[in-house]
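Collaborator request, handled under Task 6.
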Amino acid sequence: MPDYGAIIAGTGSFLPEKRLTNADLSKMVETNDEWIVQRTGIRERRIASSTESTATLASHAATRAMKSAGIEAKDIDLVLVGTITPEMVFPSTACFVAASLGMGSTPAFDVSAACSGFLYTLDTAAAFIKAGRYKTVLVIGSETISRITDYTDRSSCILFGDGAGAVILQRSSDPRAGLLYSSLHADGTGWELLHCEPGSRHPIDAALIAGRRQFMKIKGREVYKFAVQRFCELIEDAMRKSELSADQIKMIIPHQVNQRIIDSAMEKLDLPLEKAFSNIDRYGNTSSASIPIALDEAIRTGKVGKGDAVIFVAFGGGLTWANAVVRL
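Structure tokens returned to the collaborator:
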């Protein structure tokens, strides 16, 4: 059995131009900027236009990641997209992305794990690489959450935005390079805390639409408690299993779930708040796209660089939660 490492060779991200500010939302539901910022840390989020979709956002992010890695579409062996807002029920969003990039027969498929989607997808890509199956994998997190958001429900509409992030994961001869550790978890008994109903259990019909059940539902208080608990567990597990101390970790890049959740967890772990990268104030919660967007931004702004160890953590509908430790 070959013993390879899986390294991040390039990153890219893409955000729609349209901004939805807290002031805009205050005209749609009973809320205001102070209330939203105090509870979430969010000031604005990006919203896909009528000509944009999950696949188009993903394709833009992918193109930038390929440029960053210095490769072309022909060099990619596999395309994986983490998303809960797919282009269609089928074909997979990854197929649309591969087609847009000019790939003729490159395998492509989606991974659905809600806000943990990028880490589930990254772990899947690394498994293919470490097994010797593929050398270069395009890994994307892309979402148009606005398409399943109920803008009459202030408990959820203030939270989410659209965007895409991508990384190029490549084979390394050093098994200790790149992805050092990762873990995936799920508990389906907690599905009601965060879900979107349309599907084989609840086909789209007049009753479903009348009840506005085509939109996602979230139980905010329960999700808050779950996220803080898992955040702490995932960070501690990541440092323990990778044998790295807090001082040896350059940055924690969490799924951008809620600034209060991130701050609360960091305080519980007795870690400085500035050690957790955050851009939620500008983009909101972009679900599976949030970690690769944040990683790309952290690299471009010099917050992290080559040789740095970073921890990724995420939690979302499923319920799912995941972590990863990567040396850049």
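The cover message to the collaborator said: "DSSP finds eleven helices and 13 strands in the chain. The longest helix spans residues 220-242. Please let us know whether this matches your experimental observations."
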